[in-house]
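Methods, example record. To illustrate the input and output format used throughout this study, we show the complete record for Pectate lyase C. The sequence lines were provided to the predictor; the line carrying structure tokens was produced by it.
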Amino acid sequence: MRRYLAVLLLVGCFFIIEGYSQEETTVQQSAYDEVYYSTKSGDNYFDDIRVALDKVASGGTVYIEKQLDLTKRLVIEKPVHIKFLSPEYIKAPQNISIFYLSPSRKIQSFSVEGMQLKGVGITGIDGWAEKIAVKNSNFENCIPIKMNDVWGDYRADFINCTFINSDLSVNPSKCTLELGLYDSHFSASTQNPKYILLKNNTLYAEGNTFHRMTILVELNGTAVGAFSKNTFTGNDGRITISGNAKGLLFRKNNFLKVMTPMIKNGTGDTLDFKENWWGNRKGPKPGTMEGKVDSSRWALFDNFSRFAEDPYTLEDLREACARIEDVWKGDSWLYDLDENEEIDLLDVFMILRMIR
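The corresponding predicted structure is encoded as:
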């Protein structure tokens, strides 16, 4: 009798273990590295975006092949990459967040590519992950991202994006967030300029265009910032700095058609605005700065090939002579020179006076 019971117990355990194994295998097979939100059919094709997000594996990619039409936000609870293949704008009601990153899960990464979003009160991304990347996306009359009350070491990058009439606000609780703005376009076509509010961040902005944008930067604690190779245009755009300005640099930027005062320093530190091009060889116009701002050694050309106060060298003389020899071959070389030529007669005279 005891042997009979033992055999039954062993057989029962086998079926239980086998059942768990089959269930585990089924779960693993239902998670795909790539899934599609699409009208097409297939094992990893779904016409419900929430099912697609559920079926994608951690760290996988969801391809959006048709227009996204939402009535409620999409909750993200794992690392995932969203790539829009449809050029259509997302349909969503006001005061909704398209992607809500769950604060109960420590999401390692979240990235979006090709997102098209517009609509007053609509937010693209709400929440945070250890790494957020937004690429090749367009935002119009909306809120691209809400990233407030962040605690921990995080990074967010916007690469090759367009922001039209959209306020950008990144305001973490501590100075542990790195924010990168690269090769993007920010512009305001409405009557009032739009704002970029950047607080408590370590900032990197390179290759961007800011048109009629008011940039508010507040750096506290150990946060630093670097703006380089950006273009600022529009008669009513401003840059206002508060907090700690010791680690903030504005170098090799183009400031074109700016209003006065364009730069306001509300800190006790001196802002570093050296080596920038101000649209002319004479540097920033009077009244452009308010507060302590060092704009010395400005660029003499928009390609930053020479800066004010730079000494001329013998090599410069050789280049000047070669340049004049080239233009001399023309019939009207003297009249063809304009004030923005890389070398002119005044430059040559200065070289001859300084090099003996």
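Annotations derived from this record:
Helices lie at 2-29, 49-55, 314-328, 333-336, 345-354.
DSSP finds five helices and 30 strands in the chain.
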